[in-house]
Design brief:
Elements lengths: L3 E6 L10 E6 L5 E6 L5 E6 L2 E8 L2 E3 L9 E16 L7 E15 L9 E9 L2 E8 L7 E7 L2 E4 L7 E4 L13 E4 L5 E2 L3 E4 L5 E7 L7 E5 L4 E6 L8 E4 L2 E2 L2 E7 L2 H5 L3 H4 L15 E6 L1 H5 L14 H14 L3 E4 L28 H11 L2 E7 L4 H17 L4 E5 L7 E4 L5 E4 L4 H16 L3 E4 L15 E4 L6 H5 L8 H4 L35 H10 L4 E3 L4 H5 L2 H9 L4 E10 L3 E8 L5 E7 L4 E6 L9 E8 L12 E8 L4 E6 L4 E8 L2
Parallel strand pairs: 23-24, 23-31, 24-25, 25-26, 26-29, 29-30
Antiparallel strand pairs: 1-2, 2-3, 3-4, 4-5, 5-12, 6-11, 7-8, 8-9, 9-10, 10-21, 10-22, 11-20, 12-19, 13-14, 13-16, 15-18, 16-17, 17-22, 18-19, 27-28, 32-33, 33-34, 34-39, 35-38, 36-37, 36-39
Helix pairs in contact: 4-5, 6-7
The chain binds 1-deoxynojirimycin and calcium ion.
Length: about 675
């Protein structure tokens, strides 16, 4: 164990104070974290003998007592180590290894008056793929209620401010997490969301995020002096950041580190820092694929509200269920089925009724119909951010859905940032952020409440993922970035590099319900200045492998799939639950290649996609089982394909391969490749 667990005396002025530091390393020794108390508590991080984070502050400020920072010294330290394996009930891999070294540093002050003598701890866990640390404030004399007014944590990026590149979206904006990513030097950044990914001039990639965000506010990062990214917690409507009591701990602050971009993708750090499953037997949580009455509304062919174009009718639902049964889908999502969608639903969330359907939608009839076909109705609860209205109806709604055999509900919190509406205990209307402490609790409440009725939750306009699916496996997916819907109406639609950035940023936090698979891109014509997916068809297929989610939608209209059954075959074949996953190659924003092994067969799947530039990538198939032969069913960009005018030029070809084969993946600009490796023996 390479932990230097003895305190090293640094200071040369012993009569006044002894500054101390303690160092902990990752199991392979590559990452080194140094914690010190000269001046005030801080830490720094080295990777492969290079500084990654320069000394960065630690500490908290509270309303009720003096700062936990300045004046606090290391009082004691203890270390531990752990190397274990655990399993995901569903996921991008079945077995996860948790191999880390741990350091607990207790800080205390000896201030006068004695009533201000307090202590807190920072627990570090250092893995080969990064580290996490969290604050632990135990119960102690003189401390009860604690309102956090400032978290002092800093991430001070080593290296030249202008020579590092970051991929980021702004924080505390009106559009939550649904922004196009910006690729800029660090110097252009103000306040950002996490995961916040950057590349140092040395080629080292790091991503700052958090794990196990429970009963706390989301951490955004605010760049103060050059390179100093300070924790900036999203406040309550009254300005307090976190309302808590002594005896709490913060979420883990995480830093994933790799000497290349791909290393970030193969990291399990976030999951490893979450608590094990608290729900017990979760065999009722089912990964799968679905279709839905959804894209038709985004295109304007149908409406959520009632009237001649109402999408969610009994008849239309049964038509989708027939389609789902015919092509092997598990569920049909139906949006706009319940009372509340008429009129300006965006501003009238209080009108939503989660148990009463429109007269032309017969809940009992469609669920009965689905049962005969083996297809589930997927529920939809749009709240428009009126969360008290949702809370009041939640139990009755989930109880009804369970009775109807519904086992998955997509929730929605469409409201501008800072406009979540809640009614407080005094009947006063308050407006909160989607990522403040109040909403962190509200999203989790819907998940734990749904679990009682064996319902899985897919939250849209969610709080960002921090790995809580490990603890609550019915939190099956979420949105939390610009999804496919922006290609229908977004200004602008998602640019070609969007899905080449997502894996290295948003997806590091967990699964995303992106809703891939748009086959008809010409609803406004094949141009680059209209709304449409800015991709080729092969890239739409590749998204099923690249953007991991245990539930994947075939988002387009049934007629568009029936017009191209050969390409649709890939969507029918691709699984959503994996034995293992390997990112093979990639650079942030440029391209990415993933291989994943089906959890329920010996087949492997590969997805590769590129951003705005065409490229060829040669891949060794050494991930395949060397004792087997495979038929590679390849869906690639045709030689004349281009995303603007010839996105549909797709070649489907077969080739026998084994673990010794090398394949060259040729992708046109914003193109891709999707492959099924069907095991032959
Ligand atoms: C936004 C969601 O992301 C989208 O999927 C849904 O259709 C609309 N809200 C309406 O709930
Ligand atoms: Ca959305």
């Amino acid at each position: 164990m390479r932990i230097k667990n003895l305190l090293i005396l640094l200071c040369c002025w012993p009569l006044l104070s002894l500054a101390k530091s303690v160092t902990i390393s990752s199991p392979n020794g590559q990452i080194q974290v140094i914690v010190a108390d000269d001046g005030s508590p801080h830490y720094q991080v080295n990777f492969a003998k290079q500084a990654v984070l320069n000394p960065s502050k630690l500490g908290l400020r509270f309303l009720q007592t003096a700062e936990f920072g300045q004046g606090f010294h290391i009082e004691k330290v203890s270390t531990a180590q752990s190397d274990s394996e655990w399993q995901l009930p569903w996921g991008e891999r079945k077995n996860v290894r948790d191999n880390h070294h741990e350091l607990l540093v207790v800080f205390a002050n000896k201030a006068t008056p004695a009533s201000q003598h307090h202590h807190f701890a920072v627990r570090f866990r250092v893995f080969n793929d990064g580290l996490g640390f969290r604050y632990e404030v135990p119960k102690q004399a003189g401390l009860t209620k604690l309102d956090i007014t400032n978290e002092l944590t800093e991430f001070t990026i080593a290296n030249d401010h202008n020579a590092s590149t970051a991929w980021w979206i702004p924080a505390r904006g009106w559009n939550r997490y649904e922004y196009t990513y910006r690729t800029t030097p660090l110097s252009d950044i103000d306040r950002v969301q996490t995961p916040f990914t950057l590349k140092l001039p040395s080629g080292i990639h790091i991503s700052i995020h958090e794990a196990a965000l429970v009963n706390y506010a989301s951490m955004t990062l605010n760049q103060q002096r050059a390179n100093v990214f300070k924790a900036d917690l999203t406040p309550w409507s009254d300005g307090i950041l976190v309302k808590t009591h002594a005896g709490f701990h913060s979420p883990w602050r995480t830093i994933q580190i790799s000497n290349n971009a791909v290393g970030l993708l193969n990291s399990d750090l976030i999951l490893n820092l979450n608590e094990p499953n608290k729900l017990g037997d979760v065999s009722w949580v089912k990964p799968g694929k679905y279709v839905g009455i959804w894209w038709a509304m985004h295109l304007g062919e149908k409406t959520w509200g009632s009237g001649p174009k109402h999408g969610a009718t009994t008849k239309e639902t049964e038509r989708y269920m027939d389609f789902a049964a015919k092509y092997g889908f598990d569920g049909v999502l139906v949006e706009g089925w319940n009372i509340g969608w008429d009129g300006d639903w965006f501003h009238n969330g209080d009108l939503f009724n989660f148990t009463k359907s429109f007269p032309d939608f017969d809940l009992q009839a469609v669920t009965d119909y689905g049962k005969k076909l083996g297809v589930k109705l997927i529920g939809h609860n749009e709240t428009s951010g009126s969360v008290t209205n949702y809370r009041r109806q939640m139990k009755a709604a989930y109880r009804l859905y369970q009775k109807m055999g519904i086992s998955q509900v997509k929730t929605g919190y469409v409201a501008d940032g800072g406009h979540i509406k809640r009614i407080d205990n005094n009947g006063i209307t308050r407006y909160e952020w989607h990522d403040g402490q109040f909403m962190v609790g509200e999203y989790l409440h819907s998940v734990t409440e749904a679990a009682k009725y064996h319902i899985s939750i897919n939250s849209h306009e969610p709080i960002k993922d921090t790995g809580l699916r490990r603890t609550y496996p019915n939190w099956i997916s979420r949105e939390g970035a610009r999804g496919q819907e922006y290609n229908a109406w977004g200004t602008p639609p998602n640019p070609p590099e969007h899905t080449a950035i997502l894996p290295f940023t948003r997806m590091l936090s967990g699964p995303m319900d992106f809703t891939p698979g748009i086959f008809n891109m010409s609803f406004h014509g094949l141009r680059d200045d209209v709304n449409r997916p800015q991709t080729t068809l092969a890239k739409q297929l590749a998204l099923y492998v690249v953007l991991y989610s245990p539930i994947q939608m075939a988002a387009d209209l049934p007629r568009n799939y029936e017009a191209n059954l050969p390409a649709f075959q890939f969507i029918r074949d691709v699984p959503t639950d994996w034995q293992q996953s390997k990112a093979l190659a990639g650079e942030v924003g440029d391209y990415v290649v993933f291989a994943r092994e089906d959890r329920h067969s010996s087949d492997w799947f590969l997805g590769a996609l590129t951003g705005k530039n065409a490229r060829s990538v040669t891949i060794k198939l050494d991930f395949l089982d060397p004792s087997k032969h495979y038929e590679a069913q390849i869906y690639r960009d045709g030689d004349k394909a281009n995303w603007v005018t010839k996105p549909y030029d797709l070649v489907i070809e077969k080739q026998q391969v084994n673990a010794d084969t090398k394949l060259t993946l040729k992708m046109v600009a914003s193109g891709g490749v999707a492959i099924r490796f069907k095991a032959l023996d």
